[in-house]
Write a structure and sequence with these properties.
With 310 residues, the chain is mainly alpha-helical. The protein folds into two domains: 1-77, no CATH class; 82-193 and 215-310, no CATH class. It is 41% helix and 6% strand. A four-stranded mixed β-sheet has the order 1-6-4-5, with no helix packed on it. The chain has a two-stranded antiparallel sheet with strand order 2-3. β2 (217-218) and β3 form a beta hairpin.
Length: 310
């Protein structure tokens, strides 16, 4: 494989890797020999994928692949029906234990919006339903349940009694696009960021990077990436300035009720070098999707589910 890559890959890409094929492979994937898995009792299968082939992997089954030909080719990964239920199960199992940088919440919401509009990622909603009506209805129930839980949590948090640091104020909701510039920058700074540095091709423009902030921000408490809402403290962001990133509180909608007030700067616990924060520290709920739109989306999904059960 190394010889084939050395002889046939794009020389521009190889040059970007310093001429070292192994550097290129390290950027592409982490490769594990089959003998490693076999020695630990894990079954391994191989498949030579031809043009037009579909390869189906089971839930929770790792897979990897590479192009061994002398050409430029790509494969598209599609999630089968029922994937959302498994993703929620996985997220619940590992929440607070490991970082889960897959923007699951964004994928679920965008999928729900497509279904409500009669569309899907491939084909349309009718074609999706025809593939497996039972799985289609289960996905509708999963989406509805997730969005309802989210909306209930947000509305309950909005009714939270004011804490002493909030100076008599309560949580306020603002659309991300209408939020103060410092708040929007803070949300961007807390976007998911893959480790390491990707290869930069010689003909690429300087400073061109992938904008991961569109996928949401990572909650530092539970490790999940949230897209619909984030809870932040605008007072801390303003007063801490460029140092707000690691210091100002930021929570997902699940963690905010128990974690938001625990993170504020406390003079009695400081070493004397930290700035003294003043003013009102009431939470700001920054949303990409308004509560009203989420409620409407839930009702639209319920209507689709009722029509499918007739």
């Amino acid at each position: 494989m190394v010889r084939v890559i050395s002889e046939h890959m794009d020389p521009v890409v190889l040059a970007a890797a310093g001429g070292d094929v192994w550097t290129f492979l390290a950027e592409k994937a982490v490769l594990w020999p089959a003998s490693f898995f076999l020695a630990h009792g894990v079954r391994v299968g191989f498949h030579k994928m031809e043009v037009g082939d579909f390869v189906v992997t089971g839930y929770g089954v790792p897979h990897s692949g590479f192009n061994a030909g002398t050409n430029v080719a790509s494969a598209v990964n599609l999630a089968c029906t029922g994937w959302l239920a498994h993703a929620i199960e996985h997220e619940a199992r590992w929440r607070g234990k490991i970082g889960m940088l897959i923007p699951f919440e964004k994928l679920l919401v965008l999928s729900a919006l497509k279904l409500a509009a009669g569309k899907w990622w491939f084909g349309d909603a009718k074609a999706y339903e025809a593939c497996d009506p039972a799985e289609f209805r289960r996905d509708l129930r999963v989406m509805t349940s997730f969005l309802t839980e989210y909306l209930d949590c947000i509305l309950a948090y909005m009714r939270t009694d004011s804490h002493p640091a909030w100076k008599g104020e309560n949580a306020v909701v603002v659309d991300l696009q209408a939020a103060p510039h410092a708040v929007k920058q803070f949300v961007t700074d807390n976007a998911i960021k893959p480790a390491g540095h990707g290869l930069v091709l010689p003909n690429e423009k300087d400073g061109v990077v992938t904008d991961y902030s569109v996928d949401g921000a990572a909650c530092p408490h539970c490790g999940t990436v949230v897209w619909m809402s984030l809870v932040v403290c605008p007072a801390c962001i303003d007063q801490l300035g460029d140092g707000a990133g690691p210091s100002a509180p930021i929570c997902c909608w699940r963690c905010a009720p128990t974690k938001y007030d625990d993170l504020h700067y406390r003079p009695e616990q400081a070493s004397g070098k930290e700035p003294h924060l003043v003013g009102c520290h009431a939470p700001l709920v920054v949303q990409r999707l308004s509560n009203g739109r989420v409620y409407s989306l839930v009702e639209e999904l319920k209507t689709i589910g009722d029509m499918g059960s007739d």
